[in-house]
């Protein structure tokens, strides 16, 4: 029998515990042990970026991190980006407004990456956006609308005056849920 | 693509880590894991033990002094890349780091881990080699300092002995009237380079080329350093230096590029990197 | 009608869930299911001598191990040949688990079921399979040489020989004033969706029924295949395509071995089982596309008009032919593009190799055909010293010549007749968008700065919306919600939004009231699938037809309630009223109540439909003859033949004189897919297609060694473009409606990818003055081309091209301001 480790970590602000073998990848911990399937797995060798989550605020590949290593840290996944009341974050709203996603599989990784990028660089240049998302593959959009979404998210954050905080109070209109056209 | 089972050891201090490594001689050290974990996920490696040093706070250090930059084994690429102090002491380090994979990988990967992994296609080994830096290794038996020239022994092979932990790396500061440049060509932005050059040019007091060295990645089994001062001459004949390099190297073909192209490309990059480094050296000399 | 929704850039209804982690993809389901893993062949061609599973038996958590011997009856039979064709005389398919011989690396040999995927991989790793290696056939030329055979009973490795012709091409070429002959090649690429394949099955032993979730493009057909293999009636098998993380063609193939085996094992073990393909498996066990060699002979007149064209296409279809010869059929027909070709002959030889199967990837043979024709147009122009765009214009089918019969048979077995289009206008627009006419000045200005740039163009026609049919079901419930379902599946195209737009527009209801379900056999059982840019055309029109039935019924029932002639009624914002007068109206939710005569009420609303409330004449039955209860309708759209979209692309590229890196400075697209349902969605499809085209033109290839090992089976080495590799895409549209369908639409899904290799080849050739005959084009390949050309003037197309830019080796020439103007490795700094 493989040895099991008791780990505790904070996920989307909630204290979570699990009993896992040492080899359990953080991506699998989130998806299968904790049921947070919003984090996707596209390559399991660190190239595609689908599994990107925030670890203590920094984007990391959850497929290249062991759950035991993540113990004691704070993880934010796509499920934790919106405000507690469900209001989508500026980054989430921008991706919808700008048609920055199609199949949605790579999207959680982009959202986490971009959330951190804009916290660090609230007004990125075109080159800074490209560099910032350069480790995330998307097979659907051709990236053009993703780049547009990042700039739009910067606008929304500036309007809200609350740079980058996941689930930040936001407040600049639009439930986003059913507004059309 | 799930890793095979292993025993996980989580030391809190260097001494603890060294004890664990001594007890498990086939153990692998896990720092950033950005090179090791892909190998595990593909089951191309199956170490029985992993000594996870992510909890060893004393290794998470970056010291910048007049002599150079000393990077502890847990300092992530991103931290060193963003360090204004490190850039002031040795700008080549940050320049090369911007070519290491992608920003998200650099949030997790470590400088010393990249050196210990000793991938001949990686940027940092070439930088350490061209700067004549060192790696500090520790084991239960004691500590030693390994010069870069002795450290990289082959593809994915270093001079680290079983039970030894690379605790830090030292990148010497740039001397006066010195300029550096890093350039590489990769298929996609962030990929391993088809060829890459880290160049260091130092001018003498008469602003002639005093020293010119280039460290290469992607074209030899281990980082290759060439002294190009003679080939370039005192007035910096960079095409001549490039021609010299093309004769000296013997790159291997792979699925992304032929040996012939790599040789040609390495010459081009050599010329560009030396010219850029020399221009910087000149600016610094005149400041 | 309420707010205009058809033709508007309505924001996507899928996004709220996909942006918050509430999407449900295959591996998000079945958290407690057992996991399957497969032992796959490490050899390209070998005989299986022995399988020893004993090492796996002590793995904790192992549940079952299966080899071919364990598969009963139809489960163990070869997989179906999905699309038979008379020319496919030697079609062959594999077994779900290899029987005696493996024919490509990655072929499944042993299935393992365990408590989780980690343990399943532990067990798979310990199973020993002894192989006797056989000689591997790798590469088209080796396949044709047929020194070794992939299948013992397929002579020459030839699966199919297909000839399509119109007129006497050989005679026309021989009689032409000018003739050229050359060979072109395109390497393999693959769909490579970010979500791999996956199957999750659960057996309900009490009910004797099976529910299967599959990341598929064809759920109804997967159901039929599983039902047949497992001996179950269709009605006892449900197949659901959940959220699917991209398809791009690869997920149209079915049933995959795993789609047979996972449901079979789930029933046998009476346990939920899930298989989630990992990335390495996807490279070696799903499917590839594109690889072809083309030998071209063309004869033309002084104006560049093609008098005769003869193309011999050597097509590599891999180890098996489950999808028939659709790809080379498409290549050989769509090759003609927007042109009137005097006489044409195409001969396709479809060859077996010991490599992964070749099945459609976005474009499905069109990129190869367009590459062939557009390279030919450029050759003709260079040969005659004419403008490349003018030569194309000289060959165009004119707007007044539709319908235009190309005289061939298309992939649906129907005549290749174009329905509508305006190709001269497409070309005019793209020339204006890219600045074709002013380019020579741009080139000279760049050359003065030591920079080497070139321009290229490509035009294509795409048959979209092939039959046989799709259907739609629309039901308005007593809460006023409109439930729309169609059997074809979605992989991110925005169907939930686009179909809702169509339904909202047809019915006159707010789009928020419309709820769309796709790819779920529980909701709609008859469908073909999502491929060939057909979803909007096929299901869109079927849903529109279904809506029209429902609308007619709603107006009839409302007419009785309002005591008005149904012909005077219209529906606005979900309420029926007399046209132009909203003072008296009846909401659709009430119409839905009235449509279903009740004995039992379940709330105040439905009380209106009970037997003592309804005032229908006592002499008539409550449900009139020929009528049905409920406000619902079903519609099918089955076109007589395909509709033909078209487009013109142009690009400006820069090549580094020293490093041979290639950068796309500008990329322009003019696109005509008939009436646009949602321009935002169409534009997104184009962007994504172009990005895949850029991958195919400059980055992506499948590198097999001579023993049949795929050397780049990872995202490290299979170079899908990141954001840093894809240029900004400038778009313009043209709308020539299709006369073939009620909505006047043509498909848009594949358009973006089709001409990209042709356009980039044209532009690089122009920049370098060197003939480009093979794609993809890496810096290494361009460098080799330069080296070869230095000793072979025959490879030069324009002596002056190398005048500027040579010799300046400082690197300064690439130090331009915009990132788009930099070679890939210099970007993003």
From TrEMBL, chain A:
Keywords: 2Fe-2S, Iron, Iron-sulfur, Metal-binding, Oxidoreductase. Residues 161-181 are annotated as: Disordered. It holds the Pfam family Fer2. Residues 5-81 form the 2Fe-2S ferredoxin-type domain. The keyword Oxidoreductase applies. Pathway: Alkaloid degradation; nicotine degradation. Residues 164-181 have a biased composition (Gly residues). The keyword Translocase does not apply. SUPFAM superfamilies: 2Fe-2S ferredoxin-like (SSF54292), CO dehydrogenase ISP C-domain like (SSF47741). One of its GO terms (molecular function) is oxidoreductase activity. InterPro entries: 2Fe-2S-bd (IPR002888), 2Fe-2S-bd_dom_sf (IPR036884), 2Fe-2S_ferredoxin-like_sf (IPR036010), 2Fe-2S_ferredoxin-type (IPR001041), Beta-grasp_dom_sf (IPR012675), Diverse_Oxidoreductases (IPR051452). This is (2Fe-2S)-binding protein.
Automatic annotation (TrEMBL), chain B:
It comes from the Bacteria. Keywords: FAD, Flavoprotein, Oxidoreductase. SMART domains: CO_deh_flav_C (SM01092). Residues 1-176 form the FAD-binding PCMH-type domain. InterPro entries: CO_DH_flav_C, CO_DH_flav_C_dom_sf, Diverse_Substr_Oxidored, FAD-bd_PCMH, FAD-bd_PCMH-like_sf, FAD-bd_PCMH_sub1, FAD-bd_PCMH_sub2, Mopterin_DH_FAD-bd. Transmembrane segments: none annotated. SUPFAM superfamilies: CO dehydrogenase flavoprotein C-terminal domain-like, FAD-binding/transporter-associated domain-like. GO terms for molecular function: FAD binding; oxidoreductase activity. The keyword Oxidoreductase applies. This is Xanthine dehydrogenase family protein subunit M. It comes from Actinomadura montaniterrae. The lineage of its organism: Bacteria, Bacillati, Actinomycetota, Actinomycetes, Streptosporangiales.
UniProtKB/TrEMBL annotation, chain C:
It comes from the Bacteria. One of its GO terms (molecular function) is iron ion binding. InterPro entries: Ald_Oxase/Xan_DH_a/b, Ald_Oxase/Xan_DH_a/b_sf, Ald_Oxase/xanthine_DH-like, AldOxase/xan_DH_MoCoBD1, AldOxase/xan_DH_MoCoBD2, AldOxase/xan_DH_Mopterin-bd_sf. SUPFAM superfamilies: CO dehydrogenase molybdoprotein N-domain-like, Molybdenum cofactor-binding domain. Residues 793-829 are annotated as: Disordered. Gene3D superfamilies: Aldehyde oxidase/xanthine dehydrogenase, a/b hammerhead (3.90.1170.50), Aldehyde oxidase/xanthine dehydrogenase, molybdopterin binding domain (3.30.365.10). Residues 20-135 form the Aldehyde oxidase/xanthine dehydrogenase a/b hammerhead domain. Keywords: Molybdenum, Oxidoreductase. PANTHER family: ALDEHYDE OXIDASE 1-RELATED, XANTHINE DEHYDROGENASE. This is Xanthine dehydrogenase family protein molybdopterin-binding subunit. It comes from Actinomadura montaniterrae.
């Amino acid at each position: 029998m493989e040895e099991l480790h008791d780990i505790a970590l904070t996920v989307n602000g909630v204290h979570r515990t699990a009993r896992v073998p040492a080899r359990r990848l953080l991506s699998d911990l989130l998806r299968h042990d904790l049921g947070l399937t919003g984090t996707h797995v596209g390559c399991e060798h660190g190239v595609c970026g689908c599994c990107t989550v925030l670890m203590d605020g920094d984007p990391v590949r959850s497929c290249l991190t062991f759950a035991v290593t993540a113990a004691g840290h704070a993880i934010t996944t796509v499920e934790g980006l919106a405000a507690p009341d469900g209001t989508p974050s500026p980054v989430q709203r921008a991706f919808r407004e700008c048609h920055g996603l199609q199949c949605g599989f790579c999207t959680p990784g982009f959202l986490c990456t971009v959330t951190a990028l804009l916290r660090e660089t609230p007004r990125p240049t075109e080159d800074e956006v490209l560099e910032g998302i350069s480790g995330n593959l998307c097979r659907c959009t051709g990236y053009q609308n993703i780049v547009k979404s990042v700039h739009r998210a910067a606008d929304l954050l500036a309007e809200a005056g609350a740079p980058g905080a996941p689930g930040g109070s936001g407040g600049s209109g639009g439930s986003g849920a059913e507004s059309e056209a | 693509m799930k890793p095979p089972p292993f025993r996980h050891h989580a030391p809190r201090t260097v001494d603890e880590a060294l004890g664990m490594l001594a007890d498990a001689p086939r153990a692998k050290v896990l720092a950033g894991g950005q090179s090791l974990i892909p190998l595990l996920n593909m089951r191309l490696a199956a170490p029985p033990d992993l000594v996870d040093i992510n909890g060893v706070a004393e290794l998470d250090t970056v010291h910048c002094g007049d002599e150079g930059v000393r990077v502890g084994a847990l300092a992530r690429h991103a931290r060193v890349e963003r360090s204004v102090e490190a850039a002031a002491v040795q700008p080549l380090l940050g320049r090369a780091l911007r070519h290491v994979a992608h920003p998200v990988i650099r949030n997790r990967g470590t400088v010393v881990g990249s050196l210990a992994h000793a991938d001949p296609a990686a940027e940092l080994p070439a930088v350490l080699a061209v700067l004549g830096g060192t790696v500090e290794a520790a084991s239960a038996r004691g500590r030693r300092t390994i010069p870069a020239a002795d450290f990289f022994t082959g593809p994915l092979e270093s001079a680290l002995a079983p039970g030894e932990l690379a605790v830090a790396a030292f990148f010497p500061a740039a001397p006066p009237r010195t300029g550096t440049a890093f350039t590489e060509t990769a298929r996609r932005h962030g990929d391993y380079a088809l060829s890459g050059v880290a160049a260091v040019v130092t001018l003498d007091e008469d602003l002639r080329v005093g020293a010119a060295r280039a460290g290469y990645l992607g074209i030899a089994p281990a980082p290759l350093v060439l002294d190009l001062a003679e080939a370039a001459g005192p007035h910096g004949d960079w095409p001549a230096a490039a021609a010299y390099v093309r004769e000296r190297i013997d790159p291997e073909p792979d699925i992304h590029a032929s040996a012939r192209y790599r040789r040609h490309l390495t010459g081009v990059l050599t010329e560009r990197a030396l010219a850029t480094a020399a221009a910087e050296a000149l600016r610094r000399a005149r400041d | 009608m309420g707010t205009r929704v058809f033709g508007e850039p309505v924001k996507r209804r899928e996004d709220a869930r996909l942006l918050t982690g509430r999407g449900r993809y295959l591996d998000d389901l079945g958290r407690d299911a057992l996991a399957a893993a497969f032992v796959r062949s490490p050899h390209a061609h070998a005989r299986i001598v022995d399988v020893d599973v004993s090492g796996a038996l002590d793995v904790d958590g192992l549940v079952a191990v299966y080899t071919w011997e364990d598969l009963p009856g139809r489960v163990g039979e070869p997989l179906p040949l999905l699309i038979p064709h008379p020319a496919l005389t030697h079609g062959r398919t594999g077994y779900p688990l290899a029987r005696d011989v493996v024919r490509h690396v990655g072929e499944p040999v042993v299935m393992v079921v365990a408590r989780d995927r980690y343990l399943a991989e532990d067990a798979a790793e310990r199973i020993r399979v002894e192989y006797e290696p056989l000689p591997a056939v790798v590469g088209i030329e080796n396949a044709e040489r047929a020194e070794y055979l992939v299948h013992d009973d397929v002579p020459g490795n030839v699966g199919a020989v297909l000839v399509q012709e119109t007129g006497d091409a050989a005679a026309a070429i021989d009689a032409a004033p000018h003739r050229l002959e050359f060979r072109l090649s395109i390497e393999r690429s693959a769909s490579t969706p970010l979500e791999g394949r996956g199957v999750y099955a659960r057996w309900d032993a009490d009910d004797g029924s099976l529910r299967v979730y599959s990341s598929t493009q064809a759920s109804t057909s997967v159901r039929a295949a599983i039902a047949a293999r497992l001996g179950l009636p269709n009605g006892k098998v449900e197949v659901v395509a959940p959220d699917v993380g991209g398809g791009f063609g690869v997920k149209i193939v079915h049933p995959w071995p795993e789609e047979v085996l996972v449901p079979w094992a789930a029933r046998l073990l009476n346990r939920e089982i899930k298989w989630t393909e990992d990335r390495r498996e996807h490279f070696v066990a799903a499917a590839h596309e594109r690889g072809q060699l083309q030998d071209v002979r063309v004869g033309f007149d002084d104006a560049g008009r093609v008098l005769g064209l003869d193309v011999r296409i050597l097509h590599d279809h891999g180890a098996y032919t489950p999808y028939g010869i659709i790809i080379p059929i498409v290549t050989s027909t769509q090759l003609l593009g927007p042109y009137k070709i005097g006489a044409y002959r195409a001969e396709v030889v479809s060859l077996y190799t010991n490599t992964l199967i070749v099945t459609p990837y976005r474009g499905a043979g069109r990129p190869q055909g367009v590459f062939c024709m557009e390279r030919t147009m450029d050759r003709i122009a260079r040969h005659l010293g004419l403008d490349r765009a003018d030569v194309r214009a000289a060959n165009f089918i004119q707007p007044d010549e539709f319908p235009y019969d190309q005289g061939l048979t298309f992939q649906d077995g129907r005549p290749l007749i174009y329905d509508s289009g305006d190709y001269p206008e497409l070309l005019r627009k793209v020339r204006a968008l890219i600045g074709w006419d002013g380019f020579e000045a741009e080139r000279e200005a760049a050359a003065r700065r030591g920079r080497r740039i070139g321009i290229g163009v490509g035009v294509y026609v795409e048959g979209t919306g092939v039959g046989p049919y799709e259907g739609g079901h629309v039901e308005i419930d007593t809460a006023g919600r409109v439930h729309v379902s169609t059997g074809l599946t979605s992989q991110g195209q925005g169907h939930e939004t686009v179909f809702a737009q169509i339904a909202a527009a047809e019915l006159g209801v707010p789009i928020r009231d419309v709820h769309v379900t796709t790819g779920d056999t529980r909701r709609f059982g008859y469908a073909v699938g999502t491929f060939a840019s057909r979803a909007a055309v096929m299901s869109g029109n079927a849903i529109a037809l279904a809506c029209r039935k429902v609308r007619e019924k709603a107006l009839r029932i409302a007419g009785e309630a309002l005591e008005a002639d149904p012909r005077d009624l219209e529906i606005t914002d979900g309420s029926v009223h007399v046209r132009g007068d909203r003072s008296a109206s009846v909401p659709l939710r009430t119409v839905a109540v009235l449509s279903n005569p009740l004995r039992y009420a379940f709330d105040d609303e439905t009380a209106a439909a009970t037997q003592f409330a309804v005032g229908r004449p006592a002499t008539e039955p409550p449900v009139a003859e020929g009528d049905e209860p409920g406000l619902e309708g079903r519609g099918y759209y089955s076109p007589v033949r395909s509709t033909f979209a078209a487009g013109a692309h142009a690009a400006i590229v820069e090549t580094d004189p020293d490093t041979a890196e290639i950068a796309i400075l500008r990329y322009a697209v003019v696109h005509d897919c008939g009436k646009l349902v949602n321009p935002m969605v169409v534009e997104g499809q184009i962007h994504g297609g172009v990005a895949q085209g850029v991958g195919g033109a400059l980055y992506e290839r499948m590198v097999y060694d001579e023993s049949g090992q795929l050397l780049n089976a990872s995202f490290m080495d299979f170079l899908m473009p990141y954001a840093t590799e894809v240029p900004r895409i400038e778009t313009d549209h043209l709308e020539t409606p299709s006369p073939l369908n009620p909505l006047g639409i043509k498909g848009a899904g594949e358009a973006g990818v089709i001409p990209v290799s042709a356009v980039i080849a044209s532009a690089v050739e122009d920049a370098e003055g060197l003939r480009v005959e093979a794609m993809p084009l890496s810096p290494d390949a361009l460098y080799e081309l330069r080296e070869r050309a230095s000793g072979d003037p025959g490879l030069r197309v324009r002596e002056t091209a190398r005048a500027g830019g040579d010799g300046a080796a400082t690197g300064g020439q690439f130090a331009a301001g915009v990132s788009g103007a930099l070679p890939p490795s210099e970007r993003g700094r």
